[in-house]
Design a protein that fits this description.
Among the domains are: 46-143, OB fold (Dihydrolipoamide Acetyltransferase, E2P), CATH 2.40.50; 447-602, P-loop containing nucleotide triphosphate hydrolases (Rossmann fold, 3-Layer(aba) Sandwich), CATH 3.40.50. Helix content is 37%, strand content 19%. The longest helix is centred in the N-terminal third of the chain and has 32 residues, at 205-236. The chain starts with a strand and ends in a 5-residue tail after the last helix. By secondary structure, it is an alpha/beta fold. Helix 6 (205-236) packs across helix 20 and helix 8 (263-277) packs parallel to helix 9. It catalyses: ATP + H2O = ADP + phosphate + H(+); Couples ATP hydrolysis with the unwinding of duplex DNA by translocating in the 3'-5' direction.
Length: 677
Amino acid sequence: MINIFSKPLEELKGIGPKTSSEFRSLGINTVKDLLDYFPFRYEDRSIQNEESFIDGQTITFTGKVIKNPYIQRRGRTARLILTVRLGDSRQIRCVWFNQPYLASKLKLNTEITITGKYSEQHKQITVSSYEIRADNREMIHSNGIIPIYFGTKSLNTNKIRKLIASILFMPQVEVAEALPEYLSERYKLIDRYQAYKWIHFPENSYQLKQAKRRLIFEEFFYYQLKIQQTRKFYKVNTKDKTREFDNDILNNFIEGLSFQLTDAQKNSLQEILTDMGSNKVMYRLLHGDVGSGKTIIATLALIANWTSNYQGVLMVPTEILAEQHFKNICSDVAHLGINVCLLTSKYTKSQRNNIIEGIQDKEFDIIIGTHALFQEDVIYADLGLVIIDEQHRFGVHQRELLRMKGKLPDLLLMSATPIPRTMAMTLYGDIDMSVLNELPASRKKIITKSDPLKHENKIFLQLKDILDNGQQLYIVCPLIEESEQLNLENVYEIAERLSDYFDSYKIGILHGRLTSIERENIMLEFIAGEINILVATTVIEVGVNVPNASAIVIYNAERFGLAQLHQLRGRVGRGSYQAYCYLITDSTTESSKARIDAMEKSNDGFFLAEQDLLLRGPGEMLGKRQSGLPTFKIGDVILDMKIMEVARMEAAQLVNDETLAEKVCLDNIITGSNFLA
């Protein structure tokens, strides 16, 4: 038997440096990574006859190329047009968008299978996928239930499936089992190898359902194992001594603020200080609405920790956010004589070494940074408090690495997304929770409106008034490039329309395929006011503060969950201006209309979080990542919550039952899992 799970991808036949680099850009480095690169949706490509073609529906058919393809260009858009004959007589026009390079492949008399959206009026197909029949080889990409993967321009679904097939159908290939045998038997789960085959090459809906059920349970079970172990650690361990704070310093700092703390902030601060002052190790989640004031609570906790002569750490997911927190906290605590440092990956080796030495020698009291904070060579003199902002952006293992940098430091997790209590308990174990359920009195309600795309010019008129007043705009859309089969707006297409309309204003484009340096430079320009309009995918979601941004337009708003829409809306309204959120959608489904209606009526993140649970339909293709919640490779924490609850129950039993843990070799199971990275 051949176990190739850990084999690097470039060692596989046919994978050269260029292809290997393409896969790495998708986070795929090993065979295991590839098998865990699950489809984001599935298409039914069963071959249809001419009589079953329905206007506006996605169809699949086989035909012969009878004319050479030609290309039409309009602005940034290139349309490749091909004529295909079905059967003996009927001809149909096939259109590809922005793929002119395909012309050389689509030769006369080639037999081809095509999938796309059919237009009765134009007698044409807007192509989403195709496969050319070569010789008599089996066509694995075009018939039946076909998985669709996120790819790149040169690494499409077909190439990804072909490589996966070469692995799974390799003679005598072995896929090591990951679950304890008693769990597979108890829940009648198929084996791991079968699950991989059926998730990537399902022959029917039953196989797909069983594959998902197995893989989701496995992923959730390993997540819950670590959560339950963490909770057990905090329950059984106590501090060597209780900590005493200088309440006079804290009270004077609070009295010197230019605003008053809300009652929710006061209550949360008291809960945190009580934990920190007790002999138990704090394990607490502070969550609240967008703009509810988590950062000042984090600052006060860090000051309290400093008065008890301990170092404190604030870890955030991005360097821009780290720099923003560093600047603000330095300004806030300078008069107290607290030494603050910033540690990110941007520094030169000598600069980094100086900072690390200062941390180890306790020259710095508060350390702010990104993933660099838990690197092996970063040693803290006396770490007493770890605060992790946007905690869902860090894996369980990453959080543990930072916690282990000190001797039982208190841990405060923060989230800008209100999470229903029952869900939080399931996701994070029996964690203590502090809730910020009210906004500062000075925070204005964001006015939210929805309109169909045909009213875009009306919205542009309102945006012009905002720009002319010296304010800035966010424009958000769900795709980077044109995808006609889904008919979604994309950043480049919208940026082109905006440049025609707002020709005197500078437009920036921001999306996940830019390098981190490119994204950071664009964001810094926007923060500085050098970019007036930022057209972006949801990469703007993390809480960067731009007080001058007072309007956000969200295209294809129906594609987002309520939590994500609310997070995006929270990017504006941080200054003194009245803020606006425009939701553009042409969707007519009941669930999407209900979500949009909820957004228009409410600015309350707690209400919207509950509505998000109620309104998510099992057939809806919303963005995979739900704001503020842990992300998984295949599981959905909302739709698959019942599986999560079972996984939690089984993980808790295994962690707390020493006899069972010893029987199934719990330590080996956890060590062998890589779901926690």
